[in-house]
């Protein structure tokens, strides 16, 4: 049986992987239903106020004809390595937390260490109004605590090789009957994530926020242009463990408010 830990989510600490479940102090429960959904987040707690008042929020609808090709952008340099990982159901999404150094991404000369990754079903970001079957967020943080996220979009089709690696763990997670204020953890052991380094020849970049409370800003988003495939069974495996009001855990798109969306495309140069 997976260990269960009672807590109310302190989202930023978990997102960065800088606190384990046992370290998390009391906070406010949020979800995706009418009672505690995205349009209510900003009023659930003072620390969540950016969710309603922030002007640079995420996710967004990326309109290709409004993107700006920036010749100064560099390829995403991601150097990941096998690391000990734990599969976590925190109630509002399923993710992997790394208990040791798992590699980093380099952006504009700054290194951001990979802390954790988690899935949203369906996708949070849209491309020209199209929503995808799922979205994976690889969350990184730098020494100055700034955050960079690499997002991968999925269409429902063939099996995803990476998700296939953790299907046994996802099935175990689905068997855990946790209360609303608990999480479950399944140790995965050493996990090689090199498959997630592929398809970085095109990406969209903009400055946004965390997509869950406290919706903190100044997050550097990098949405890969290559859409991967994921099977119907794998999507279900990502949905089943979470709370009933979080099965569909995509925050609606937020206003762009004049922000610039840059695009790097290796084919354009």
From TrEMBL:
| GO cellular-component term (any) | chloroplast stroma
**Domain Alpha-carbonic anhydrase stretches:** 28-265
Q: Which Pfam families match?
A: Carb_anhydrase
- Which major enzyme category is it? lyase
Q: GO biological process: what's one of them?
A: one-carbon metabolic process
Similarity-based family: Belongs to the alpha-class carbonic anhydrase family.
Name of the protein described by the UniProt record: Carbonic anhydrase
Please give the organism: Durio zibethinus (Durian)
Gene name, please?
Answer: LOC111297077
